[in-house]
Design brief:
The complex is a heterodimer of chains A (about 400) and B (about 250). Chain A is of the alpha/beta class. Chain A is built from 6 helices and 20 strands. Chain A has helices at about 5-10, 100-105, 340-345, 355-370, 375-390, 390-400; strands spanning about 55-60, 65, 80-85, 110-115, 120-130, 140, 145-150, 155-160, 170-180, 185-190, 195-205, 210-220, 225-230, 240-245, 250-260, 265-275, 280-290, 300-305, 315-320, 330-335. In chain A, a hairpin with a 2-residue loop joins β1 and β2. In chain A, α3 packs across α4 and α5 (about 375-390) runs antiparallel to α6 (about 390-400). Chain A is globular and about 60 Å long. With about 250 residues, chain B is of the alpha/beta class. Chain B is built from 9 helices and 12 strands. Chain B has helices spanning about 40-50, 70-75, 95-110, 115-130, 150-160, 180-190, 205-210, 230-240, 240-249, and strands spanning about 1-10, 15-25, 30-35, 55-60, 65, 80-85, 90-95, 140, 165-170, 195-200, 215-220, 225-230. In chain B, the strands form 3 sheets. Chain B has a 6-stranded mixed β-sheet, sandwiched between helices. The radius of gyration of chain B is 18 Å and the shape is globular. The chains are: A alpha/beta (about 400), B alpha/beta (about 250). The interface of A and B includes residues 346 and 348 of A.
Chain lengths: ~400, ~250
């Protein structure tokens, strides 16, 4: 029988020997079937989906196939959404595109979102990807191609979750082309089943004065890995990557973000808050590259991990590569346990140690979660986080 | 209410408390003064149960119980309150939530039901008025972005809401301007009563103009070098700590 690296190499997929993949759990890929699901699995009703967010048009894909009956396609001003059976190959092949190419080769229905120049749709589109096929039967290849015209404003929610056994193989790809002066708020929530294998590649390009705020909430899956490649191509472009990951049991959550400053005076902010409980591994690896000529770059990475399990693992690694002068780049990374002074403060007020610890974990995540600008979505995410942390205290705190 | 006998404590290899003996009765206010590094804050933290101190000898009896055998949260629920010199900021934990959780922890201990959220908010607002804190405080994170003075007021607010039996205030006056000092002092005075005791740790006699103590103790090198009534504080102000230190040497 072939060993894992051989199988992956034969498909031109990375192995754990690759520097940027060493924290990912690639082993489950040995047993998946890469063939795309070709038939909608029956019996999924709208009730099984997360509560819709008011004002957002909902598009649902089941195992990568568009499900019009589950969708609620409100007309949105200046924005068109099509589910089409034609993949536009990414023009960008600079980053690590290996899983993206696998998606390109297999994706069935593509969610193509086009915002016309000047379109104003800050609360706009919600795309829900449901995985139902068992990984040994068929794979799911969600795909979003997003084109945002100059000066347009777009709010996008993207959710991934499972129905059924939750033993799915999902390999998604998202491409965003954000025009000059356009603004995109993009919330991604990964809540697939505890047995799911979830891989994902996101590539984004920002033109002059464009703004892109990306929120990534990682909760589900047995093995999840996000690969991001974001290029600030235009002057004064502004990027925020806000990521939260909570792992428990034997989950592995890994993310790799490559942010390229290719134009002067662009700004990027990355924050990551991860909690690893049980025997889980939670990793965030981020690399900022400042290209020649990108003077006036302003970049900050704040990566923090919290160990909450005796056998858990946290890996946070900020990296910088700078090829020009006159830049402001900084990073901060911590991985450790709860702050002793905070803990004692709460105990000295009579809180029991367990409640105090839960409260502090919650506070740690809220640093990022509180930035999600859609109140209803934030509430749903907070409830899910509380559930993931098995934390009634947090739910109580939410009711305040 | 609390009897400290021959208490010795160290941090790592360093002996900080070298035989403190002190008794504070219900209804009394005691001030503990002393130069930097004399062990004042250590004493306050040891009484509240902060980890990191080794108690090498002595005992502390609170209401007839061995205080040192209780966990920090058990001490708090038994009515011991520490007002911190440097209160930590806890972004993401809401002020009101902490207050409510703290009050309910005490109530649970006593077999009482949780406070009614509406009544509780009314009580907190009333105490906030006394401490001259505005409403925005309610929704903020614990001490998050507070100035030094606001943090100290927040400590006193927590004390007012929790109504402890023994309040140990660690340099609550440091970093306060005269107006804030008066507010803090009036907060403390409003809680004075026959069933309660206060231990005020302070550098300066200024605080004692507003909170008049029954007894003043001077801590030098981890021992009480001198005790007296409030006139001792005035004398210290005039003659400096060296006067007591020299006598203690």
């Amino acid at each position: 029988m072939s060993t894992s690296p051989e199988i992956l190499q034969s498909r031109n997929l990375p192995t754990s020997r690759d520097e940027n993949w060493k924290y990912a759990n690639l082993r489950p890929l040995e047993r998946v079937r890469f063939t795309a699901a070709s038939q909608r699995s029956p019996g999924i009703s709208a009730d099984a989906l997360p509560t819709p967010i008011e004002g957002y048009a909902r598009y649902v894909f089941v195992d990568g196939l568009f499900a019009p009956d589950l969708s609620n396609a409100l007309g949105q001003p200046g924005v068109t959404v099509e589910a089409i059976r034609s993949v536009t190959p990414a023009s960008d092949t600079v980053g690590d595109m290996r899983f993206a190419l696998l998606n390109e080769a297999n994706a069935v229905d593509v969610a193509r979102v086009v915002a016309a120049p000047g379109a104003n749709c800050p609360a706009c589109i919600e795309i829900v990807f449901v995985a139902s096929a068992d990984a040994q039967t068929a794979a799911s290849y969600p795909r979003i191609e997003l084109q945002v015209g100059p000066q347009a404003q777009l709010g996008l929610i993207e959710r991934h979750f499972s129905v059924g056994s939750g033993a799915n193989f999902v390999n998604g790809a998202v491409t965003l082309d954000i025009g000059a002066g356009a603004r995109v708020d993009h919330c991604r929530v990964q809540q697939t089943g505890t047995q799911a294998i979830w891989f994902d590649t996101l590539s984004a390009s920002l033109a002059r004065d464009a703004g892109y705020q990306l929120y990534l909430i990682n909760l589900g899956a047995k093995s999840a890995r996000s690969t991001m490649h974001i290029v600030l191509r235009g002057e004064q472009a502004e990027l925020g990557v806000h990521s939260v990951s909570v792992g428990d049991r034997q989950q592995v959550h890994d993310a790799y973000a490559l942010v390229e400053h290719a134009a002067p005076h662009a700004r990027s902010r990355q924050s990551f808050r991860g909690i690893a409980g049980g025997r889980s591994r939670v990793a965030f690896n981020s690399k900022v590259v400042v290209r020649e000529g990108a003077h006036g770059t302003d970049s900050y990475q704040s990566l923090r991990g919290l160990l909450a399990g005796a056998e858990a693992e946290i890996d946070v690694r900020p990296q910088l590569e700078i090829y020009t002068d006159d830049v402001r780049c900084a990073h901060g990374a911590t991985a450790g346990k709860l702050d002793e002074a905070m803990l004692f403060y709460l105990l000295s007020r009579g809180l029991d140690p367990e409640t105090a610890q839960r409260l502090l974990k919650w506070a740690f995540l809220e640093d990022v979660v509180a930035k999600i600008a859609v109140p209803e979505l934030r509430r749903q995410i907070e409830a899910s986080l509380a559930g993931q942390m098995n934390d009634p205290t947090a739910l109580e705190a939410l009711a305040q | 209410m609390i009897r400290i006998e021959n208490l010795h404590a160290s941090v790592g290899d360093k002996k900080v408390l070298n035989g403190v003996t002190l008794e504070v009765n219900a209804g009394e206010v005691h001030a503990i003064m002393g130069p930097n590094g004399s062990g004042k804050s250590t004493l306050a933290h040891v009484l509240a149960g902060r980890p990191g101190y080794a108690i090498t000898a002595g005992s502390v009896t609170y209401d007839g119980k061995d205080l040192l055998a209780l966990a920090p949260e058990e001490r708090a629920r038994a009515g011991v309150f520490l007002g911190f010199q440097y209160p930590v900021e806890i972004p993401g934990v809401n002020n009101v939530y902490l207050l409510k959780a703290a009050v309910n922890a005490v109530r649970k201990q006593r077999g009482l039901p949780e406070v009614d959220a509406f009544d509780f908010l009314g009580l907190v607002r009333e105490k906030m008025q006394l401490m001259q804190m505005d409403d925005s405080f309610l929704s903020r994170g614990v001490n998050e972005g507070f100035s030094g003075g606001e943090k100290k007021r927040n400590e006193i607010l927590q004390m007012l809401v929790l109504e402890p039996r023994l309040a140990i205030l660690d340099e609550t006056d440091s970093g306060l301007d005269i107006d804030a000092l008066k507010v803090v002092a009036s907060g403390v005075n409003s809680l004075r009563g026959p069933e309660r005791a206060f231990v005020l740790v302070t550098h300066y006699q200024r605080l004692l103009d507003y909170i008049v103590p029954d007894q003043v103790h001077v801590l030098v090198r981890g021992r009480i070098a001198r005790s007296g009534d409030r006139t001792l504080a005035l004398e210290l102000e005039k003659r400096g700590y060296d006067w007591v230190s020299d006598q203690a040497a």
